[in-house]
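Below sits our specimen:

——
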Amino acid sequence: MRHSGLMLTGSLWLCIALPGALPAQTTNSDPVSHNRYDVFGGYSFLSNSFNGNNVPLNGWDAGIAFRAWHQLDTSRPWHRLGVKTDASGYYGTSDGAPQRPIFLLVGPQYTWKFSKNSPFIEGQVGFGHLNSDWFYPKFLGNSNTPTNSFAAFLGAGLDRQITPRLAFRVEGGMLRTNFTVPNPDGGIHGLPNYFARISTGLVWHF
């Protein structure tokens, strides 16, 4: 878990530093130059636990979306396309087994601008990590349960502008994972692979 936390922190700082390292395409007179990248943070809800007991999980969601390689011009469709790195974590207990997944995803985000409303669609791929006792409680012993999985997310959301640099966000979509539990018959069947995810919080524009 400590190794995953270090990877998560390092990836987020890389995405913060990368736009500043790229050549600036805006001028001091550009009124929207602070929209080069967005930083999001807030609450997140996951529809189910991973051991199949239908227990929702609560947690956090954070992301950085940037488009620093060109001057923002929403009249050009490709200028609405950005790259987003998303990290999320959830906490709960299901049938005595703790559920502490962490996800790190990256992919495109396409945004429209209508006055103070900015709807967007997004898709990301990456990996998920779970605590080792996510399927069996610790008192049942070491289960050698796999703790890593491919993950993908497809969703959409809406940013409502509060100030030129601050917006309120609501987003939702479907999270896909592939966590399994081995057994002599080739694996335990019926574990969930698809999860509804809803996140809400604040977005800062830079």
